[in-house]
Amino acid sequence: METPPLSPLDTGKPFCGRTSTLIRRVLFFGSVGVVNLVSSLWLMDLFWRMGFQKAHYPLLAIFVLLNGLLVLGSFHAIFGAFAALGSRNRAARITRLTHNLTGALAKRHAVVMPIYNEDSVRVCARIEAIYRSLDHTGHLGSFDFFILSDTRDLDLWVLEETSWTNLCRRLGGFGRIYYRRRRTNENRKAGNIGDFVRSWGGGYEAMLVLDADSLMDGADIVKMARLMECYPRLGILQTPPKLIRGTSVFTRLQQFAMRLYGPLFIRGLNYWQLGGGSYWGHNALIRLKPFSEFCELPALPGREPFGGRILSHDFVEAALMVAEGWEVWLAWDIEGTYEEAPPTLVDHLIRDRRWCQGNLQHLWLIFARKLPFSVRMHLFMGIMAYLGSPLWFLFLLLGTWVAWDRYSSDLSLLPFESYVDRWFHIDGIGQSLILTAVIFSLLFLPKILAVSGAILVPRVRRSFGGLFPILAGSMLETLVSMLLAPCIMAAHTLMVLSIMLGRTVAWGNQNREADGTSWRDAIRFHAFPTLLGGVWTLIALKISLVFTAWMAPILLGLLLSAPVSVWTSRSRYGKALARHKILATPEELNIPAVIRLADDARAAVDPALDASVEGRRGLVAAVVDPYVNGVHVSLLEFAELTESGEALAERCLTAGPGDLTKSELSELLYLAPAMLMMHRAVWLRSTEGMHTVWTQAVESYRRRLDQSLTL
Q: Where are the alpha helices (DSSP H) in 143-248?
């Protein structure tokens, strides 16, 4: 292997020096602060011209915070655009750091995929694609795969076992692809990963953490592993995954926006965070030794929702890593990293409920001692991603109150001279229009920069389908996003209120199928924003037509929340847009090799070992089917058959599985002797006294044999 030049990290120095990091952060946040300060003073001066009222004080305070978030987001795109123009800086392009390195990897690495009540065939298809992609690189021997199940559905548990067995048989993966199901799923995903680290982490240098819908290119995984080996201070290497396989309008809007606008924000984020980045919970490579030593999550004081176990564990794990002197990088230029998104607005908001509670828990941590600046900023941005909605809602309510007060008191003159009038000779209407123009410029500038950059670069323009698809897609995305924003604001406001009232969130699996939202569900789910929009519209009309026109984007979004939710959930409309390349992404028009591998993956499906047949699915197959029973029993620990276990098995045979509780069935599935006894009983005993679920399952084999003889 060619010896690389000595890097700063080889000598124990940080990859990006403190002075350089400080200059970047002062420049970035100083620019944000100056623009926000000027905008806030401008609004304060406008309030002075109107005559300060009590409502103006909270309005101004909320504006400072909300406008600061707007400026912060906009400047991420602006600095990202500047970074794209001058990308020769070595801190900007991760993939160049290992460009000249060849030969075998020196350390072993693990690929871990935690799952919870997922489609096991699709999960194994993604594992198969990554496995084959790594095999094509010639470095498969440096990686082991772990499917870490926390599945509570007993039928899905058995399906996972058969899918994993088929996958290993077809790929020759026994001893390289492992499957483990936890008996108790303590602390959710964080506990699942923690259990792996304690049990198997000592054998690996790093682990690549994936979600159940994650997909990564093998060549990029090898680059990340080389980087982890070369830079001993690197603790976490996070990649920005691209959204793929969207069929509904909602998912296509998401993946188009993330693919077109996202790179600028990612580059801008990387500009100031450098080695103090964050971990997003998946599609990231983590060095196991410091993760094991420093990232054990503490329980927060009190009970849920604000206390107890930390839900958004990823941010906190990165914070603990950075606080201990390890670096967390954002590998913005790793291309082959993908995930899928919820197919509908309703599914998106259901997932957001869990994230909202997790991020609000960080209020305990943001002021903790010894946390670096970058860590506090990441926690702050995560918190404000959800607190921003109720603040926006409150700002609009206060604005409506002020407008109503002016209407009811017949005040129309601006009685006080202002500094803007004195220095710039601008009247009150002009002053308010200028502030509005600045805010809208900050709001739309990132999209303008991204669209302009895509159009001006021929390679990027072609990858999105050409000029017309980019323009049409960006305009459609902007319009629909404006309609969705008020509905999301209302939903997030309810989420925050429910959490403050002490309502906790359940841990559910994510819907990944784009089957659409029914009108009944949409009307029920969006009843609050619809009613809110109706009442607010009547109040606005009572105030004035001008105020109604000013509030129209908000009011329309609330009133149309149910129809827009239904329309964006439909796959047929998404497919119609796809035929014209509207909202198309480069990964859709030129499918990467690893996505093709996942689409063609069939190793987990084998009729000889199948627990998904109608009439003998899951648990029933584990008892009746000889192959499924053999696989299931082989994965259990040895145990003697006790009297209580035998009695439970006899009850299941005579009364059927429906007579047992879920905990009793789970206990039975863990008893290897009981499972073997039940298997022999359903095949050898008389059908008298046997529950029909077993006799019908056995009979289905005879019907299959009769059909084959007839053919």
A: 154-171, 188-200, 218-230
